[in-house]
């Protein structure tokens, strides 16, 4: 199964890039974040792509927003798209196919409301744990807005107590992984300290690869899938995030 996740940072500005990505990469699962658009603002040919089940959880007043695409070849029966009760600001959408639950998530940055970020993370953890207890297995992909370890931040960007690197945040993300998930990128690239998915819009940061790893794909260990590859399409698109692609088989 080919899984991709991408924070597009505005689908209207990057609709053509999104369609190119879907066409060239042909993901079985595509998780999209920060669409910044209502349903009416997204053209039909972008919302509805041949060969995919899709759902757009539209942004509120041009803020946030997520989407989820599942290929009909990998999922012949239509999945059920749901929003857990914990959802806020259109940050999470899930597709349920049997006992597999796939989520596209856009975690809060926390810069404007750090307490809300922590509260949302705790709610997501409780939700994941509850569904695991009910027998569900997970694929979770998206923008986590936390660099899990110092290895996930360029040395020049390491700062004491900066949001996104705080011990409290990192422990929450680690606690989510500890529920029985595999951090796919680290399974394939355990020691790569330049495996970044986001770069600030300044001083050629992306070109110089001065970034953070904050986009991720997690899968339940109980799926018993081997990850054969996990790659960042670093040169693709004009978002401040690059698409992350993984092969699970």
Broad structural category: alpha+beta
Quick one: CATH class? Alpha Beta
Question: Largest beta sheet: what is the strand line-up?
Answer: 3-4-2-1-12-11
Main beta-sheet annotation: 6 strands, mixed
Explain what this protein looks like in three dimensions.
This protein has 249 residues and is α+β, with helices and mostly antiparallel strands. The protein has a single domain (2-248), classed as Deoxyribonuclease I, Chain A, CATH 3.60.10.10. Helices cover 20% and strands 27% of the residues. The chain is built from five helices and twelve strands. The strands form two sheets. Strands 3-4-2-1-12-11 form a six-stranded mixed sheet. A six-stranded mixed sheet has the order 5-6-7-8-10-9. α3 (114-133) links the parallel β7 (100-106) and β8 (137-143). α3 runs parallel beside α4. The termini are close together. The mean pLDDT is 96.
């Amino acid at each position: 199964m080919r899984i991709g996740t991408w924070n597009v940072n505005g689908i209207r500005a990057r609709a053509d890039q999104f369609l190119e990505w879907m066409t060239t990469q042909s993901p079985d699962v595509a998780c999209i974040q920060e669409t910044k658009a209502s349903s009416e603002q997204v053209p039909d040919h972008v919302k509805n792509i041949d060969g995919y089940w899709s759902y757009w959880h539209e942004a509120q007043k041009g803020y946030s927003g997520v989407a989820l695409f599942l290929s009909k070849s990998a999922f012949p029966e239509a999945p059920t798209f749901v929003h857990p009760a914990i959802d806020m600001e259109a940050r999470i959408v899930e597709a349920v196919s049997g006992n597999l639950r796939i989520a596209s998530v856009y975690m809060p940055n926390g810069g404007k409301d750090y307490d809300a970020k922590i509260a949302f993370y705790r709610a997501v953890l409780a939700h994941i744990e509850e569904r695991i207890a009910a027998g569900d297995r997970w694929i979770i992909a998206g923008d986590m807005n936390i660099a899990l370890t110092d290895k996930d931040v360029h040395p020049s960007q390491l700062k004491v107590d900066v949001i996104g690197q705080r011990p409290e945040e990192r422990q929450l993300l680690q606690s989510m992984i500890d529920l029985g998930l595999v951090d796919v990128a680290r399974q394939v690239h355990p020691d790569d300290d330049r495996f970044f998915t986001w770069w600030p819009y300044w001083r050629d940061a992306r070109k110089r690869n001065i970034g953070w790893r904050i986009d991720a794909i997690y899968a339940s260990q109980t799926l018993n899938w081997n990850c054969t590859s996990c790659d960042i399409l670093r040169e693709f698109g004009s978002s401040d995030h690059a698409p992350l692609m993984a092969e699970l088989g």
